[in-house]
Amino acid sequence: MSIMESGVSILSKKILGQFLITSQPELFLEGEFFQKLRWNKEIFVPLQPELTHHLEINFPYITGQAARVNFSVALQSGERMRFRYNTPFLVTMSGKITRLK
Do the beta carbons of residue 49 and residue 6 sit within 8 Å? Predict the structure, then answer.
């Protein structure tokens, strides 16, 4: 019997023409750096079920951390959620997170 791991998958996307963004997005869990994500690649992040997790995504840019987005997830055992992180038109604005089906 296979037990599916709980967690979230995050697909990170830049707006066409944002070629000055060369660093990869970063994921923070509970306010602490957790791991780097990849542009245009869906990354699975295992999370403990039955807890509410607070996540933040942003990327290093010339002016510091840019396109920050915060969200929370609460997962059941074996549950997986998929999200898409998008950069805004201006990197000084907040990023956008969308839950995917």
Answer: yes
What is the distance, to the nearest Å, from the Cα of residue 20 to the centroid of all Cα atoms in its chain? Answer: 20
**Domains recognised in the chain with CATH numbers:** 7-100 (2.60.40)
Spatial distance between the Cα atoms of 54 and 66, rounded to a whole number of angstroms: 18
Q: Which of 76, 74, 66 is nearest to 20 (CA)?
A: 66
16: amino acid identity, one letter = L
Task: Report the C-alpha dihedral over residues 29, 80, 76, 96, rounded to 10 degrees.
Answer: 50
Predicted TM-score (pTM) of this structure? 0.91
One DSSP character per residue, 56-94 reads EEEEEETTEEEEEEEEEEE--TT-EEEEEEE--SSTTS-
Write down the residue that tokens 């944002």 correspond to: 18
Q: Give tens-digit pLDDT for 22-47.
A: 999 999 999 999 999 999 999 999 99
DSSP E strand boundaries for 1-41: 7-13, 26-29, 32-36
